[in-house]
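User: Hi! I have a protein structure encoded as tokens and I'd like to know what sequence might fold into it. I'm fairly new to this, so please keep things simple.
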């Protein structure tokens, strides 16, 4: 259940973003700036949560009346092993200890749907969180760390668990919209795993940023999955991407290494909590991402021209 501590939207005194240089952090920073919200954007160069000294550094960066958005993490594209897991847990530990000793006004933690088992086909907020990857285990552990640290001070904690994200700002190159778009742009080819049977939900980065903005102005407290409620197969997704190009785009296939699994979301709780939030339809979001990627490529070519 989500509780809005501010039923009527209010602009917070200030928002601090930890992990502001990542794709989600950049989108949230841009969205808050456009909404004229006073924002402090911090990356690892400003405060390295992996080291104990970060707890001292945060004392001069986070104030008691701040809302804090936490998107700082080492992502799976940079490591999926035990070493990466432990570094992420260390980051969560340092932040949790700091917030327990130096409370702020509101915390938003951007988690992941990886906290649910890979084979879980229909997901609700009440579904059992039983991660089957180190990435999911990390997020679930950090959720629990923050919840315990903030409980004594009764600081509202909003946890968002987004499904697969996409957008021109994304740099992770995960299997799905961004990899398909870049493959089509660079090689005129998209490679599916098996026949692309799996069905998945996809949310635009800008839509997640808007939802974070809603959570901030309502000082929301609770847990929500972030999805559109509509899952499509990777094969259909590949065709949707290919249709954006005037030139033919080849759709290839590589052998499957794991069983076919589908993932669907019941978004009733999300729509109930934020009825005015509406996700961008996938086809529309793909077109906008393609437009931005194409303009970025063109700009780079112009800059490098003699």
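Assistant: Happy to help. Inverse folding works backwards from shape to sequence: for each of the 306 positions I chose a residue that suits the local structure. Here it is:
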């Amino acid at each position: 259940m989500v509780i809005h501590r501010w039923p009527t939207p209010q602009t917070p005194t200030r928002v601090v973003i930890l992990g502001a240089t990542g794709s989600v952090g950049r989108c949230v920073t841009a969205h808050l700036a456009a909404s004229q919200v006073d924002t402090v954007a911090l990356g690892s160069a400003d405060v390295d949560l992996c080291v104990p000294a970060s707890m001292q550094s945060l004392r001069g960066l986070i104030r008691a009346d701040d809302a804090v958005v936490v998107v700082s993490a080492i992502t799976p594209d940079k490591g999926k092993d035990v070493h990466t897991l432990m570094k992420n847990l260390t980051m969560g530990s340092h932040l949790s200890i700091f917030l327990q000793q130096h409370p702020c006004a509101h915390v938003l933690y951007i988690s992941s749907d990886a906290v649910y088992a890979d084979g879980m086909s229909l997901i609700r907020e009440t579904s059992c969180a039983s991660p089957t990857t180190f990435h999911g285990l990390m997020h679930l552990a950090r959720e629990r760390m923050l919840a315990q640290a903030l409980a004594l001070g009764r600081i509202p904690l909003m946890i968002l668990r987004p499904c697969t994200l996409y957008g021109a700002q994304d740099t992770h190159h995960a299997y799905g919209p961004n990899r398909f778009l870049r493959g089509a742009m660079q090689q005129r080819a998209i490679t599916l795993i098996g026949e692309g049977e799996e069905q998945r939900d996809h949310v635009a980065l800008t839509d997640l940023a808007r939802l974070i903005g809603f959570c901030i102005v309502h000082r929301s407290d609770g847990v929500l999955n972030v999805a559109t409620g509509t899952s499509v197969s990777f094969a259909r997704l590949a065709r949707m991407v290919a249709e954006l190009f005037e030139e033919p785009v080849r759709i290839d296939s590589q052998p499957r290494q794991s069983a076919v699994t589908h993932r669907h979301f019941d978004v009733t709780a999300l729509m109930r909590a934020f009825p005015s939030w509406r996700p961008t339809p996938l086809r529309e979001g793909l077109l906008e991402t393609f437009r931005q990627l194409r303009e970025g490529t063109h700009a780079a070519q112009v800059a490098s021209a003699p």
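A useful reference point when you look it over: The CA atoms of residues 19 and 44 lie 7 Å apart. Feel free to ask if any position seems puzzling.
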